[in-house]
Fold this sequence. Notes:
- The chain has 893 residues and is mainly alpha-helical.
- 69% of the residues lie in helices and 4% in strands.
- Strands 4-5-3-6 form a four-stranded antiparallel beta sheet, sandwiched between helices. The chain has a two-stranded antiparallel sheet with strand order 1-2.
- It is extended.
- Residues 1-5, 8-23, 481-500 and 517-537 have low confidence and may be disordered.
Amino acid sequence: MSLRRNPHTWLLLALFTGLFAASCSVEKNTAATRNFHNLTSHYNIFFNANESYKQGLERAGESFVDDYTSILPLFYYEDESVQQSVTPQMKTAIDKCTKVITFHSITAKPKIKQGKQSEKDKAFYEKNEYNKWVDDSYLLIGKSYMQQGKFFMAAESFKHVLKTYPGEEAYYLAMAWLVRAYNAIGNLDASEDLIVALKDVDEFPKKHEEVLHTSMADYHMKQEEYEEAADYLVQALETRPKKTQRIRYTYILAQLLNETGNGEASVRNFRKVIRMNPPYVMAFNAKVSMASAFQAGASNSEEIKKLLNKMLKDPKNDEFQDQIYFALANIYMEEGDRGQAIEYYHRSVTSSVQNNYQKGQSCLTLAEIYYNEPRYTLSAAYYDTAVNLLESDYPNYRALQVRSRSLNHLVTNIHTYELQDSVQVLAAMPESARNAKIDAIIDQVRKEEEEARQREQQAMQDMQFNRSAMYQEQASNLSGSGSGQQGGRWYFYNLNAKSFGQPEFRMKWGERKLEDNWRRRNRQTVSDLLEEGGAEGVALTDSAAGMIIDNKSREFYMRDIPLTDSAIAVSDALLEEALYNMGMIYRDDLLDYEKAIESLEELVERYPDGKHTMASYYYLHDLYNSVQQPSRATYYKEQLSRKYPESHMTMLLTNPNYIREMEEAQQKVESFYEDVYNDYRNSRYADVIRKAERGIIEYTEDKDLLVRLSYLKAMATGAVHGKEAMKSELDSIVAWYPDTEIAAEAREIIDYMYVAFPEVKEADQVREAVELYTYDPEAVHLFLLAVKRGRNLNLVNFNLLNYNLDNFNTYNLVIELKNLGVDYNLLHVKEFANNQGVRRYADKVSEDIVKVMGEIPEDEYEIVLISKENYNKLLEAKEFKPYLLFYRQNYVQ
């Protein structure tokens, strides 16, 4: 009987379902409810949550990109890109686990059996949770948070499991995962405490020992304790993990063994990786890494070199040739074949296409080799390239930057020295010999340019020939089958097109190596240092004469040769400075005492009375002591004492009490200043002024004390003699000590005084005006109306023009308008023979001023008389107020 025929069956089924659900409520703890919720949690919810988590792990493995330049991480979850990519799957897992906890957790206690209770029964009644999937859900939530990079939330989930479910399988797993969370957070002390506790646990589930051992390995890797980490990875591999993890663990183990210096075991594990058929990139890096793990004297060097050379021939490795050459170079360096190693390091640099890290590392290795030889010019070029290519998080990057800057500074000074030394040699030659030398250079330039012209001509002929051949081939192809596919049509498969393009390229660009910045003719790269290049035709502009100077003329090469006494003096100054800088860089930055001695000795020999001779004697004494040559040290001490007996440096070497005497003198200075400052704090201003003036006379060599005393004197002067006197003292500080902090403070006080006390600024303006303007009543004068900006000066101009026509028509007066700064516009009437003439005109205009100015208020304009010379100065100064003060002082009174 079907349900459709008997509707009462539906009613009975619904009633049964309701009664069963009620009997399976989480409020009751019976065998039925436990079975129902365990079954529902496992197969309806937790299973799907775990599947979503596993899908996220697969996605993490697909999205993570390994950096084989460093030890690979055991886990992916600390990578931000991985965290973002797995978020959807992990959120799904968390939501489903939360559903298990919310709807299926059974915490109610079951009914106690009658009679005697066994230990098993007692343990059962004391449980905190009776759904066996709830603790697993909390654990999975924590693991999902880990994959999202939410390590603190993950740690809280694991700690909840530890607190709530002791003795359960999830409890031990939570301990291991909490170690990972603390490792990721950086709380390694907490990780260590857990690891100590885990070592005493005998009940850890054997099937989960991989989690335990890898968590401990991760801790030791973060502590850079690679030997201990390797031991735990060996134990993890003994648990027979999945193939993907086994390959990864083995590769990391090989890297760790290499770091510990166990090259033989490292090579052995890299071979295991290769035999496991890993992804191509990992297999490639395993083969290359075998070379870095190689140790001198090992029997497998030839085998590794053979493998690497075979890899060079494989087209799949074309973009990885820089890494292969680098690996080969490391083997030769380890074997002591320095020349072959350098050759392969160079090949690594030149073959690098897009791997900036490898190119930077190869350049850095060459930089260090040349630095230790030492060949500082080459080393500087490679250091500079390495610093530009490597990222700022590269180990000891700041130290690399410092050394690169020191070497670049050294090379700059070496170039200056070499240039000035060379041009002085040329300057000292007889003119005929000098001209012969220059003519030989010009002949070489002409020869090289002719060779370049012939190459271009040959390239043009090749281009025309190949173009003709290509056209013939195209015509032949067109005459064949129209439907057939034409072989080799792509440029690089078409030999004719390719042979046509190559000479065309050479004609346009010349011979260019395949390298970065190949288009730039004047690029300066490491490759330029590997070979001597010929001079190309160039020309310079003579900025003084505005002429183009050809590089095949003597004038081109004569420009920098010092042939006059003044030019020789300039060249000597540059050369001496370069030698001194070289000596200081060798001594302080590079610790190359022999080179420092060489530079400074040449300096004192060339310039016995030079700017840096005294300091060079002092440093030569110190350097010779450092290289255990006391007799030479004594020689330079005597030279210093003889030529500079009163110098600070001589005193340091000859007076054993000099430092103590200097300290006592400094203490005396400080005590003197404290005494003056105490007088100022206690308002004894006259004493401050008197003592400050005495100190300024006595301590003329101590600039810091002088500026501080001058400041106290200025403050005291203001208290005694007023604002203007104080302003004068502050002006002196600004003038005498312009670059000091106290001078900056003095400027701020002066600016404040200008705002707070306008009379101080006005007094300054009067002084400026007296210095700038001259009073000459017999000079030609102008009548001047200064009207504040914003007023209608055109209307004033119109009114004054009409006024002059009515009253001074026969005088032929001219009116002109001018802008003056941001405050005033000027209207002047010219010109009058002298002061008396313009004054008569001004008096008449003043009587009828309303006719001229209209409704402009009196405080919006000024009428002044001004000489023609002073008017021109006013236009340059662009400030009306100082002249107004001058006018009132000289004309009005």
